Amino acid sequence: MYDRRLDAVIASADLGSFGKAAERLHISVPALVKQVNTFEREHHLTLFHRSRGGVEPTIAGEQFVEDARAIIRQCDEIVRRARAAEMGGDMPVRLGVSVLRSGKRILDLWQHGAARHGGSRLEIVPMVDDYAAFENVVRHLGEHVDVVVCAFMPQWWGDVCGTLRIEDQPLAVAVPRDHPLALRRRLSVSDLEGNRVRVIARGHGGNEDARDALESNGGIEVVDFEHYDLSVFNDCVECGDLLLSKPVWSDVHPGLVTVPVDWDFTMQYGVMHALEPSAHVRRFLDEVTELAAWDMSR
């Protein structure tokens, strides 16, 4: 319903790079650049400052991107309402999924408890695991995506979105399959001595207590990274580093084995939603709460 070149403009503004924007949209860099350039020429606009370091929206570009988002939201909402009317007025809840945020726990609950929930419909929306793209989704929950299922520290996201805890995920260590520790059923912190352990950087939404426990052991080399994405998992397999992880990620990479650790550190796992969710999303959250309680009582 709208000029799809707007997607290229918005992605470029979000990521500050034509290359990263092309990756997000699954098109080639030349194709994306052509979309942006032709749009600017047709409308006599300069939307970006271009440099070797990337792209940055001009003042006009910042205003344009903000207004373009509103147009896209309106178009999407028109289509959604039409589809809902066609199906008797039942609006689906759009669940964003990716490799790292698969939503499997919710989907399993939904399937096993089908007779118990109120019949909210789910629509699966694919996401990419690039952190900037994920953060953009979370900051705009209720627009293209209604809910995301993942592990989180509520205080990290408190002013951005709402969270619904389903369970606590115990923190574990993902070990390269050919590493001797991959054969162990459980690990202690002292077992990790002599290894490099990748841990999300302090102040980036991770469990700081787990980080403190690792840093306090002088025999463990703690290696910072800023955000979880698939490249972190790939790098650990390639170089033999261990990775602070969670059971929910056990199937992310076939070259890694998730091994429990003898400690009590956890992260909440559940649903992220808009700060003011719509009525049909609130109904879905109530149903998830009931299903999770039923599942725990079995």
- The gyration radius over C-alpha positions equals 22 Å
Helix content: 40-55%
Count of distinct strands: 12
SSE topology string: HHHEEHEHEHEHEEEHEHEEEH
Mean pLDDT: 90
Task: State the shape.
Answer: globular
Under CATH, the homologous superfamily of the largest domain reads: Periplasmic binding protein-like II
InterPro entries: LysR_HTH_N, LysR_subst-bd, WH-like_DNA-bd_sf, WH_DNA-bd_sf
GO molecular function, one term: DNA-binding transcription factor activity
Protein name: LysR family transcriptional regulator
Domain HTH lysR-type: 1-58
Question: What this model shows, in words?
Answer:
One of its GO terms (molecular function) is DNA binding. Keywords: DNA-binding, Transcription, Transcription regulation. This is LysR family transcriptional regulator. The protein has three domains: 1-89, Winged helix-like DNA-binding domain superfamily/Winged helix DNA-binding domain (Arc Repressor Mutant, subunit A, Orthogonal Bundle); 90-168 and 269-297, 3-Layer(aba) Sandwich (D-Maltodextrin-Binding Protein, domain 2); 172-264, D-Maltodextrin-Binding Protein, domain 2 (3-Layer(aba) Sandwich), CATH 3.40.190.10. The protein is an alpha/beta fold. The strands form three sheets. A five-stranded mixed sheet has the order 4-3-5-12-6. It starts with a helix and ends with a helix. The chain is built from ten helices and twelve strands. 31% of the residues are buried.
Write the layout of secondary structure elements.
Blueprint (H helix, E strand, L loop, with lengths): L4 H11 L2 H8 L3 H15 L4 E4 L2 E4 L1 H28 L6 E5 L6 H9 L9 E5 L4 H9 L7 E6 L1 H4 L4 E9 L1 E5 L19 E5 L7 H8 L5 E5 L4 H10 L2 E4 L10 E5 L5 E8 L5 H19 L1
Parallel strand pairs: 3-4, 3-5, 8-9, 8-10
Antiparallel strand pairs: 1-2, 5-12, 6-12, 7-10, 7-11
